[in-house]
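Annex B.
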Amino acid sequence: MKKITKLIHSKLDKKYFSNPITRASTIFCKKIKKNIKYGLEGTEINRSLENKINILEKSNYTSLYPSGLSAISNIYLSILKRNDTVLLPNNIYQPNLRCIKWLSKIIGCKYYLYNKKENFKKFYKKKIKIIWVEAPGSITFEIPNIKKILKFSKKKKITSVFDNTYSSSIYNPLSDGFDISLLALTKFYSGNNDLLMGSISINNKKINKKIINSRKNQGIGVSFEDCFLINRSIFTIKDRILIHDKNSRKILKWILKKHKKIIDNYYCPFKDNFFRKKIKYSSGLFTICFKNININKFINYLKLFKIGFSWGGVISLIMKYKIKNKLYVRFYTGLENYKDLIKDINTAIFKSRY
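Cystathionine beta-lyase: predicted structure tokens.
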């Protein structure tokens, strides 16, 4: 049975298609027992969302968090101790890097950055507990050697974590051998730019026990209403990603053809072998370094692309980044008609040329 069919028919409450919002701090038990649940752990609406994510991620366990960053920090706090080491890609999500820098001072752990072509020999004697993969990266879209990373992590018994936000519902890192799949549900799972949430998906019972224990001891919970909203939008996630993919490919192709003379460099994952084999669909992101145009003016002249962080929602976004002393513009193509987005970009380019 395909994922979408399982998703639609995976209901905890068979009376209704949509699970109702159940708010609770106190959860009643019919009989006295050892583990009485508290509302912070969630109700049926939470379980419904966790179950759906398990289907899409092909996981046994999923836990929910107030944001993607909250899920990231919980992974660290669940596993790391003093003098333990984390390996991070050098294209890592900056709040993730900020988090581990902070934790290194608090609990005394260490971290190292590895590059796309890393062979990991220099790390064999380190006390490594976590290796992190973010592929493609969300700005320059690097994809490291996944097979090499998994071989290294298995040999050294390192917990491997894959940030699957870019490929939400498309790629299944746990099926390839990763221990943990992390998602920022804020993006594609929400799809509407109006809520924050993250998740951790796992197959290994022992690792999940550590994750849940840390979650409980931090008093982490999520909004019942937000669970309801993601439960509604989750069914269309792949359909939306296909539109983002089409829009980004059409627009990038047009820019490279129409405005080739003003492009210094650009980043997209389309030609990478791992991407073409395992992921296949773009998240709507690509990054360009323009020349002979005023970048600030270009961004300000755009009408349909809004300036703001994040992506994965209905509306197109634009952000500016400095990479190797050059200014780059990252485009996120939303669900608007791609021809309208092309017109918007074209107008902004002509107005901002030197």
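The domain at 3-234 is CATH 3.40.640.10 (Aspartate Aminotransferase; domain 2). The chain has a mean pLDDT of 92. Further annotation is deferred to the next reporting cycle.
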